[in-house]
Each structure stands twice: as structure tokens, then as C-alpha cells.
Amino acid sequence: MIASRAAGPAALSVQKVSKAFGAVAAVDGVDLELAAGTTTAIIGPNGAGKTTLLKMIAGVERPTTGVIALDDRQISGMGAAKASHAGVGYAHQVPQPFRGLSVRDNVRVGAVEHRIPRADEWVDEVLQLCGLAGKAHRPAKALQILDLKRLELARAVATKPSLLLLDEVCAGLTGSELDAVISLVDRIRTDGPTIVLVEHIEAVVAQLASRVVVLDWGKLIADGTPRGVAEDPQVREVYMGAGHTGEGPAHVPAFDDVAPEDKGRGLVLTDVRAGYGMIEAVHGVSLELRPGKISAILGANGAGKTTLANAISGVSVLRGGTITLDGVRVDRMRAHRRAAAGIAVVPEGRRILPALTVRENLLLSTGLGVRRPEIERRLDAVLETFPQLADLMIRRGGALSGGQQQMLAVGRALMSDPKCLVCDEVSLGLAPVVIDALYEGLQRVVARGVALAVIEQHVQRSLAIADIAYVIDRGAVSYAGDPAPLKDPRVLDDVYFGSATRQRNTA
After folding, report:
1. pTM of the complete model beyond 0.85
2. Would you tell me which of 50, 319, 352, 456 could form a disulfide with 462, CB atoms 3.0–4.6 Å apart?
3. Mean pLDDT of 79-95
4. What residue ranges define each of the domains in the chain, with the CATH number in brackets?
């Protein structure tokens, strides 16, 4: 409880707020009224605009249009420092302490900067609240992840905010660590500030928020209680994709059923651990991507799917476990050597070179030392995979449609002649007819013997073509096997909206 020293909660008003980056509207005409003292969660898929909205409220980003007010005082566009002094506290997903200062001095900075009366007493109170009193004189750089999360919250609370913004503060935590931070936020909100939290972990939302708003492509599409939002058909479609019901394979052999000559072939991950900064987002994941087979890797936002893709490509350094390709360890190789060995990853967001032509984009991905006949063979294979690119070879990448750019992104990966292809959210933001064309092309790739993994938000569509499915939950594999059971809506409910589903069933 911080009511005895805090300034009191404030009401937040967001009126027709938009934010554009060039031609892209990250936030599009959002209206939101939050009563003082409430706790509201903002959820939505990757790229929905959640963090951009939070940054505009915090003054980090200036709205393109619209007004943001705190207790009838306009704060939009005033900048982060002034917004902080106006009563906005901000705790980040990745803790950002002064690493060379002690825990106490980190907390004291905010109290002194905001001229809090009897600052030293207040700092002691905040440290006690956040469970850091016994580590007050320890340097911040010596803290482990849970205490770094506590310190990030303590630094925000030390400014006595009337509005506290929490941007995925539970990211990377599991088990007792997650419970500890949920409990801490619960203590902070008791008679404390108004809280707005952006969060992917459903348990956090269910336990802390009385209201949930959902963003998709920058627009507010749902607003209600956690239970009501979880039952909303539009929200379910956003998270799991439209109900594509194509038939998958009749039977998928379990690992023990694989023929002995196929054991070890393809990409094999064993007890893989990976993350970013101090955060471990993948915990002991084991899976196999087999030649000529499609693996669907599913899971809610924040489950660790993209971190897993980065670990496979070499962008993220493994913290434990092994990765082998056709029996040869590749986890100690740098990213470019993994690519040369036969691993290709199509990252979320396409990332083509817009100023270059389609042909130039493709040729740049071939690698050094490849002879012209082989280059032409690979180009022919790409055009066989995506015939739509054949008439676009001299067009600049930036002039392509979204679907054409995604085909080009996959084509670039194919120019390395991979044995294993991992596609991260290839259907994101595309029309159904375009997604169909993409998936048809990917099935042609698999027919050549390539091991394919699709990390996908359109669950039913990916399950329809998958030979095996994996579900990642909070960084660990919670399901591995036949995709068929996951086509049951009740099973998907439990995977994507677990706690809310159980609450409905017991109500």
C-alpha cells in the first residue's frame, strides 16, 4: 500500500489518438477513458500498437493526432520528463537501472528528482514495499532478473505517480518469480495509482486487471472484463486466425515411431534455453524439424516463439542445450555459418531491401562463392515456388504489395538453398487469398525435402498443413504431437485463454 505517501490516482483520457510512422498507422484513432484508481490491461497481437500507445501516454512519443489528458490536464506531446513530473510513472519490459549505482541510490534518484518530501524515508518505504530492503546497498549490476524487475517497479513508484504504466514487466518470468511480481503489482495498486499494463501473459491480466482493452493494427477492437474479452469472437480470431478448416494429415508418427534411418536427420533442438538481456524467454525446449515435414509452432504472444526462432538462426546466443542439423552441432556456429550449413529463417516483418529490385534482393541472399549455374538453379526454384514474382524481377522491393514482399522475403531465404526453413508470422497482416498463395508455395518447398517450421498466429491455417504441432507456453513446450487434437476449439481455448477458460467453466 502506498496511499499514505502517493499523490493519489488520476483519471486518464485518451481522445482520438493516432500515431503514424510514415504511411503506417501504429495507433489509429483510439478513444479510452480510465477512471482513477482502476487497473486496465491493454492486450493484442504483435504489432497491434500497444507499446506505441503506452509511449504516447508517457510522453516518449508525440501523437500525430488526438489528445491525452491526466485529470483534465493535457499531457500529450509534453515530453517524457514533463509527463513524469505531471504524475506518469513508467516501468519497462527490460529493466533499465543505473548499473553502477546501489539499489537504494537507483530508487533515490527518482524521489530526489521529483522533490519528494522526506525523500530518504520515502525511499526506505518503497524498498520495503518492493522486497528490496535487504539488498539496498547492493549494486544494481549484481541483481538477478527477479530483483531487477522489482527495482524497475521501485524506481517508477519512487516518483509517486498518479498513473503507473507497466510495459510487460512480467516478461521472462515463470513460476514463483512470476507470482512474486504479480503480488508486488497487487500491493502497489492497493489504494495506489491508476495502473495501465501491457501484457502478454494471460495469468497476469486475469489476476490484476478489472478491465481489458484489445488493440489490433492500431485500432481498439474490444473493451470489457477479462472473461468477456476472452469470449469475444473477434478477439479469438485476432489471436488464432480465421477458422480455416482444411484437413491435415491423418496420422503423424510420434518420435519413437520414426524409422531408425531418419533419427537425427533435420534440425534437432535439445533442452534449448535462450533469451535477451537478463531475461530467459525459452526454457529447456526440445523439438525436431524433419526433412519434408511441416511443424507448426504455436503459442500466445510472449510465449517465446520468436526468441526460439532467433536461437535457431544464431541471432540469440544459446544459454543452454544443443542444436544439431543432420547430426552435426550448429549451436556454436555464428549466424552466417548456420545459414551456410543450411538453416534459413524468415523473420517477422519481411525486412526486404526496398530500394533494390526483386532480382537484386534475391541475388544478395545467395552467399559467396556460388557459381552462376547454381545461382540460376536457385532463382528458378524460387520462381517455381512463387510464380507471382516472375513478372516483378525488375520492380523495386518497396513498390511491391505486402503479399509480394512476403513472397520475396521467403524467396530470399530459399536462395541460400536451405535444408531447414523457419518462417516467423509470414501471414501477418495479409489477406486470406494472399495467405493461401504463400502456403501453397511453402508446401512446394517441403515437397523438395526441406524441413519447414511455421510460427504462426493463424492457428487453424497452420494446423491444416502441419505434420506435427508444438505449443509453446511461457517458454516451454506444453504440447508436442498430432495437430488434430488442437483443432478442437476447447483445446485451443485452454492453450490461448487458459485461466479465463477455467474461470468460465467453474463459474
Report:
1. no
2. 456
3. 92
4. 12-240 (3.40.50.300), 257-496 (3.40.50.300)
